[in-house]
Amino acid sequence: DFYSLKAFFADVRQWGVYSDYKYTPNPDLKGWNNDYPFPPEEVVESPYLKRRIMKLQSQIQEVATIAAKTASKEARAAWEKSTKAVLKKNPDGWIVPTAFPLVTNIAVVTNRMKLTNLVAATESKPAATNLTTKTSFKTNSTVSTNFIAQADGSLLFGSKADGHPIPLRLEAGSFAALRLELIPHARHSNTIFRGKTTSATLQLSATLRRAGEKKETKLAFYHADADHKEPRYANGFEILGIKDSWKVARDHAKERQTGVWLLDPPVAVADGDVLTVSLKTNVIGCLRVSVSPLVPVAASRESAATQISAALLRDAATSAAWLASTASDTNAFAEYKKLHREIQECRGGRSPTVVTVAWKPDLTRVLPRGNWLSDDGEIVEPQPPHFLPQSKHEGANQLTRLDLARWLVARENPLTARVAVNRFWKQFFGAALATPVDDLGLQGEPPSHPELLDWLAVEFMEPTVAVQSPRSKVQGQKAWDVKHLVRLMVTSSTYKQSSNLRRELRDPDPSNRWLASQNPRRLEAEFVRDNALKISGLLNEEIGGPSAHPYQPGGYYVNLQFPDRDYFASQDDRQYRRGVYAHWQRTFLQPMLANFDAPSREECTALRPISNTPQQALTLLNDPSFVEAARVLAQKLLVAPTKTDEARLNFAYQRALGRNAKPVELSSLKKFLTAQREHLQGDADEAVKLQKVGLAETPKNTDAVELAAWTSVCRVILNLHETITIY
Questions:
Q1: Strand (E) or helix (H) holding 175
Q2: Which DSSP symbol is given to 177?
Q3: Mapped to the 3 state alphabet, what secondary structure does 36-64 carry?
Q4: 620, 644 in Cβ contact below 8 A?
Q5: Helix (H, G, I), strand (E, B) or coil at 540
Q6: Least confident of 218-227, 394-403, 485-494
Q7: What pTM was estimated for this model as a whole?
Q8: Digit-coded pLDDT (tens) for 687-715
Q9: How far apart are CA 31 and CA 18, in angstroms?
Q10: Cα 60 from chain centroid?
């Protein structure tokens, strides 16, 4: 039976992990490395990320609107006027500056007519890798160029790679975005590459030299992206954008490819200013550089003109375009860049998910005494255990994983619903109806309430009980509806009982198998942190989406290889997402979860151990998540209508425990609060340091000593055994 069940999964395609993928036996992994996302993955739409993008875009509009209200009306009007003028002259919003040859000696070409004649002269010559034209200027300087300027503003290069910079003369206006177009050309076999080149990785840099000056200023960019690119990976995820490097898409070598770089910050330019663009190891046969005074509101790779034209009719959208294109408010522009980066990290609202790929199934043999080297064991086919009802599959083909799925939820299968219901019951009542939960059947104990287990299993498969939801109408009429089952359990009289074991039952039923009371039990690892965040008001209850990254000690991944991993804690409200979304790096589970007995996921775990260790108390006292939660709770106490220490302590107890503090607890905590105030008044630096733990902001004009003292009290309350226990 074991090998027959294993045979269902013999068609699952598997890939190996290698130190050198040049020698991998998986041909589709050629050229990979361990920075790549490990297959098989599929990118799917994420409702959570879609909602997040909309939220961030709304925040950008809000930031820009506030900045616009404090800006000069004259400057704003001048920007709108110049924007309309640019769009009238260049409907796509892009301006192609004039390229001119490099001057290798001292002189600078300033005579436009002579420059035009020079370019015209070079156009009449045969294409070459480096064209040099000697002139009879008064300076006797030598002017050289490695390109031929075309009528459409594109630059045609020779057949060999080079790294020569491309100087371009700008017109007066503003400069917020730079576009690089790679254009197929007949001179280069109708591809974008020169000669026999078939791939390219471009690293773009740019400088600006003011007219009449010799000094060049390096331009910075905060984002860049392209319509076509080869993906690059780091830490298992695709690197966003092309700001550092653009790996040109080989599959689109005969198509135009466009990259756009956004300036940080945008700059104002005058007639005669020179923009110099450099491409390290330029192997592109024909390209065109253009600039724009506009940045698209949503950081589109294409022209901003259409969006800006429409935005000029809407004040809020215009404000966002104005802020992004001018950076007139430094602080607002910094916040815009931060939000813009977060939008990019949402990856268009799509997220990778692991899928199972089927291929030709391997032979499954019975391994005598577990000898996996044996190849003479009996060959078995996929089949459910012989002692259970068999699949209703018809036909000569062997059973598949789809048949197995149908068999698992078949009405005739007596196990699936019972096992599921038994585990849910343990989740809400602390003890299962049949123990142990990971060995239900003849090997485990008989159910304490067999009729209840059977009824719940049938109700799970074929719901008949209508349970009223506080947020909606009657629900739970769908088969295998987990929410219906959970609602049925938590609204029962059994669940609502006190957790105090009745005196008369302590001897006859010490384990409470008769369900005469609720079972106290410690929260599981993920819920311990969730509980603290909920008490403080920090918990982010959004559902779905990729993993969040809670605070984690530096260097925790130092021993993790293939490849080395960097960990960056989430720097926004994702920091406060529920524990189920915490990032989990293979067997290196988050340290706080490890301290509270979360399994390492090396194998399926249906029953977690429960320990009580000093490390748990230290985690609750010192982990940044709990310190921050205590600080935010303390802030709530200080701004609450209650003003006395006793009232504040009762308020904290109500939030954490749902009751007022007992007299002995009040007395102890008051003494502790007094001691903390005296200590912190003599060490103000410690009080200030405590305020800086975590991302949550501290209200202005807050008494640092008083807040730190109450933070210490709240740390004690969050550390109570009662706080992390369900009663």
A1: strand 173-182
A2: E
A3: CCCCCEEEEECHHHHHHHHHHHHHHHHHH
A4: no
A5: strand
A6: 394-403
A7: 0.81
A8: 999 989 999 999 888 899 999 999 999 99
A9: 12
A10: 19
Whether residue 405 contacts residue 416, with contact meaning beta carbons closer than 8 Å, is answered with: no
Within 8 A by CB and 6+ apart from 494, the residues are: 429, 515
Residue 78 region by backbone torsions, left for phi larger than 0, else alpha for psi between -120 and 50, else beta: alpha
Are the C-beta atoms of 434 and 453 separated by less than 8 Å?
yes
531, exposed or middle or buried, with CB in 10 Å at 0-12, 13-18, 19+?
buried
Element (H, E) at 424: helix 416-429
- pLDDT value for 286: 93
Q: How many CB atoms lie within 10 A of CB 603?
A: 6
Task: State CA 267 to chain mean position distance.
Answer: 32
Taking CA atoms, 570 is separated from 110, 262, 352, 548, in Å, by 52, 25, 19, 6
Please, what is the angle between helix 684-691 and helix 704-718, to 10°? 60
Give the per-residue pLDDT at 296.
Answer: 59
Q: Which of 671, 417, 660, 305 is nearest to 425 (CA)?
A: 417
Predicted pLDDT of residue 292? 92
Predicted confidence at residue 382, as pLDDT, reads: 93
- Give the CA angle between residues 154, 159, 161 to the nearest 5°: 90
Weakest-pLDDT range from 171-175, 406-410, 467-471, 656-660: 467-471
**pLDDT computed for residue 107 by the predictor:** 33
Three-state SS for 349? Answer: helix
- How far CA 127 is from CA of 97, 124, 606, in Å, comes to 22, 9, 72
Which whole-number Å values give the CA distances from 70 to 63, 174, 338, in the listed order? 11, 21, 21
Output the 3-class SS for 435-463.
CCCCCCCCCCCCCCCHHHHHHHHHHHHCC
Sequential DSSP letters for 136-169: --TT--EEEESEEE-TTS-EEE-SS-B---EEEE
pLDDT tens digits for range 338-360: 999 999 999 999 988 888 888 88
Give the C-alpha separation, 505 to 516, whole Å.
8
pLDDT tens column, 252-293: 999 999 999 999 999 999 999 999 999 987 899 999 999 999
Strands 204-209 and 274-279: antiparallel
- How large is the greatest C-alpha to C-alpha distance in the chain, in angstroms? 114
**Which residues pair with residue 582 across a beta bridge?**
548
CA distance 616 to 597: 10
Q: Over range 388-393, report the average pLDDT.
A: 84
pLDDT band at 102 (very low <50, low <70, confident <90, very high): low
Give the N- to C-terminal CA distance of the chain in Å, as an integer: 42
pLDDT for position 342: 92
Q: How would you label 448-478 residue by residue, b for 16+ Cβ within 10 Å and e otherwise?
A: beeeebeebbebbbebeeebeeeeeeebbee
Mean pLDDT within 148-152: 89
- Render pLDDT for 604-615 as a digit per residue (tens, 0 to 9): 888 888 999 999
Q: Is beta strand 201-202 parallel, antiparallel or unpaired with respect to 257-269? A: unpaired
Task: Tell whether the model's pLDDT for residue 208 goes beyond 90.
Answer: yes
Q: Is the peptide bond before 563 cis (omega within 30 degrees of 0)?
A: yes
